Amino acid sequence: MISGFFLIIYMGPVTLIFVMTIQIKCFHEIITIGYRVYHSYELPWFRSLSWYFLICVNYFFYGETVADYFGALVQREEPLQFLARYHRFISFALYLAGFCMFVLSLVKKHYRLQFYMFAWTHVTLLIVVTQSHLVIQNLFEGMIWFIVPISIVICNDIMAYLFGFFFGRTPLIKLSPKKTWEGFIGGFFSTVVFGFFLAYLLSQFQYFVCPVGINSETNGFTVECEPSDIFVMQEYTLPTVVQNTLRQKTVNLYPFQIHSIFLSSFASLIGPFGGFFASGFKRAFKIKDFASTIPGHGGIMDRFDCQYLMATFTHVYIASFVRGPNPSKVLQQLLMLQPEQQLSIFHTLHSHLRDRGILPPATEEKRSD
């Protein structure tokens, strides 16, 4: 598993194939539990409809991402222009087709069971597909936003186990009797330290910090950029108490290291509740594991219950505290406009910059000509 993780890092943006595979497997495991619990193997069309809805939702989410991040590429390809322009209508039409097929498949004496499974499918889509899509969006912001959250969750899981194994005495929660307060606290401090130093290491490399883009010549992924401010070393003044202890007034850090403290804190304090939720789910349906995919670890969902929650938090954190206006995205959106609209925006921007004194006044421009 560790070797596989390093292979994923080496693959770079192509990692989205891995995320898609994980998502499909997690969906399969939860849907299969639904079939077993509600004894719904004989329901007409339902297995096919579950997978059809998965395809529809993925088409919607990934289409939105392509149009958002790679608008310039879409603009150059005429078939993609049509799909991008009517993407939401096409997505809704595909969903409506599945909805109608579900209604037509209703069978007398099985109505309640069929609606149980309809709800089960949609809740599964909400939990699995929506959150795995956020993993992809984090990845496009830079590999570091993908690697660090995943790594700190793994670190917390390992360190909480070790501290609990050697020092654990006090039970933490009834849903997981083996979890202890000692492991919970030890995992927290270990994860914060690990995340802090991992952030320092990765912030030095353009490969990890640059947002994913498209190379217009090769139409392939590219991760070249001028690193943003949060990945540039800065000097910080230490609090007075710390100054007296360390006998040092300032320290040089990457701002991302400070962000990593908040990410690590979430992974340690709130992230485990994703595992507790999964434990409660399995107890509710009297199963030990989601599946037997990974020997000794249970199903894929057993390994990714906390990861999905962490990915959601990372996405919200980036949107709330990190992401600012993205010039490349704005440019991509401008390139998708009609020529007259682009010209109108050009004149408006030109006038705005001239009024602010950034560009010379119109009279000076004429004299220079």
Shape: flat
Which structural class matches the secondary elements? Answer: mainly alpha
Q: pLDDT average, as an integer?
A: 84
Query: Can you write the helix and strand succession as a string?
Result: HHHHHHHHEEHHEEEHEHHHHHH
Q: Give the spatial strand order of the biggest sheet.
A: 1-2
| Number of contiguous helices | 17
State which percent range the strand residues make up: 5-15%
Largest sheet: 2 strands, antiparallel
Gyration radius from CA atoms, angstroms = 25 Å
Distance between the termini: 66 Å
What is the number of strand segments?
Answer: 6
Helix content: over 70%
Q: Low-confidence segments, ≥5 residues, pLDDT <50?
A: none
Q: Please tell me the total number of domains.
A: 2
Pfam family, one: CTP_transf_1
GO molecular function, one term: phosphatidate cytidylyltransferase activity
Subcellular location: Membrane
EC number: 2.7.7.41
Topology:
Blueprint: H1 2-11, H2 15-37, H3 46-69, H4 71-76, H5 78-85, H6 87-104, H7 111-140, H8 144-167, E1 171-173, E2 176-180, H9 181-202, H10 206-209, E3 213-214, E4 221-222, E5 234-237, H11 240-246, E6 250-253, H12 255-269, H13 272-284, H14 300-322, H15 327-335, H16 339-355, H17 362-368
Antiparallel strand pairs: 1-2, 3-4, 5-6
Helix pairs in contact: 2-7, 3-6, 3-7, 7-8, 7-14, 8-9, 8-12, 8-14, 9-12, 13-14
What does this structure look like?
The structure is a single chain. The protein is mainly alpha-helical and 369 residues long. The chain folds into two domains: 1-141, no CATH class; 156-351, no CATH class. Helices cover 70% and strands 5% of the residues. The chain has 17 helices and six strands. The chain has helices at 2-11, 15-37, 46-69, 71-76, 78-85, 87-104, 111-140, 144-167, 181-202, 206-209, 240-246, 255-269, 272-284, 300-322, 327-335, 339-355, 362-368, and strands at 171-173, 176-180, 213-214, 221-222, 234-237, 250-253. The chain has a two-stranded antiparallel ribbon with strand order 1-2. It has a two-stranded antiparallel ribbon with strand order 3-4. A hairpin with a 2-residue loop joins strand 1 and strand 2 (176-180). The protein is flat. The model has no long low-confidence stretch (mean pLDDT 84).
